[in-house]
């Protein structure tokens, strides 16, 4: 049972940890672990104050067919509205437009409004598909208003462009007509050539062209008139943006959870580090394993020993004392 | 230096051990061979500075009475946690642990014919004094035995406080021969003699290294003839007091604190004690009762 004191074998003291050891370490350092987890939760809770949830407002528009059925024949002469969509989108989401909206709706705090706005053709939209305008903002009312504003601007921009296009077509055709008519009226045929069949053919062709131009001018005028009266293809709101009541993305619980998880990882790491720095014997089995000594006796702590109470880390105690000194009326 | 008396003591003690061990009979745990301690008249010693030191002999001893019975009786103080009627109440698990330690220790001592045991911890605060006192109380519970508990931690004595007793003098004075054993030692009950001390001695290493100390200590053992002499000693790793005293003990019990002592502490203690004495074992103190494994596992 006795042993002559011998030079110790260093390899004998190589510590390793069993699950029981780990459980005991966690139990013993529970105050430290709980403190660090609590600290992590507090930090993330404070951070979450600066992180707002995100609300999404969606407004869906569809391309409505022409209202005047008799004029449908004209449709093949007009560029389809869907073909204009990419260009309209680019114009609508241009920086200057978004800046105007940001100023109008007091969205200066939103760092990247272009990233918060999306407009795309969605085949899943009601009907045969439509344009969905999505706005993701921290404030639900602002999200709704901006979606409505973008929708309104899209409709207006579309109508304006189509009217302008019709006007330009009409103006162009009118100019062509005028030029052709001037050319015909200014045509001086010498008496010697009045019987020339080639000249007679040219004159007939010009008169035909003039008649055709006149017909196209009439058609362009009709188109212009129809566009102004919004009787042709146009955007219509099929699902107006509603005030969103639940956020689509609220990172606050996730942030708090991350704080807890990271806090727990850090706490366990700190506990293990503390244990690694001071690998106390703890139990008889560990004593025997680490030193080769079977204990002569194992004396338990006296009942009610203050060592059994969770020990609050000194830094937390000091923070508490400072808090109590600074705001004594709170405690 | 005169070695006559000291040589007699060693021979006497070894002879008694050798003679008594096989015959345990009904003469106590270690078969103490009656009153073999002799009262000596004037034992001349040499102190550290080579000045002669005289160990004075009490009248009772001169009269041939057993010095054990001549010791002054003193009870445990009212605040002592070792009193049977202590307000803190007895912790049966702790008592059982020390009873177990007592049994193992007695077996070791009996097997090897030893009776001088040092109790020390690797570092301060491991409970060496508590263990020494508890073990002494447990040993004293064996009828017909004699246990001596000496507070040899001269730098930070703690036995008197643990027992809530007031020491008559300093251990330094006793170990340097300035105080006679009968004036210094007290008896707490029939089975336990105490060598307490008052105040700290900064020259503890010098005192414990001195030959006077050795002579006085051996003389005390011879005269009181205890079955077990426990010496509460300072931490092994803090100073050389224990090493200085090691030649006077048969073995060392290391007291390790479950929460403070590391395997490295034990290894360094082994290095310190290497070649000087036996490590009788390690007492693991302050082991948690809760947790995945029971405290005794």
TrEMBL record, chain B:
<keyword id="KW-0808">Transferase</keyword>
<keyword id="KW-0547">Nucleotide-binding</keyword>
<keyword id="KW-0067">ATP-binding</keyword>
<keyword id="KW-0418">Kinase</keyword>
<dbReference type="GO" id="GO:0016301">
    <property type="term" value="F:kinase activity"/>
</dbReference>
<dbReference type="InterPro" id="IPR005702">
    <property type="entry name" value="Wzc-like_C"/>
</dbReference>
<dbReference type="InterPro" id="IPR050445">
    <property type="entry name" value="Bact_polysacc_biosynth/exp"/>
</dbReference>
<dbReference type="InterPro" id="IPR027417">
    <property type="entry name" value="P-loop_NTPase"/>
</dbReference>
<protein>
    <submittedName>
        <fullName>CpsD/CapB family tyrosine-protein kinase</fullName>
    </submittedName>
</protein>
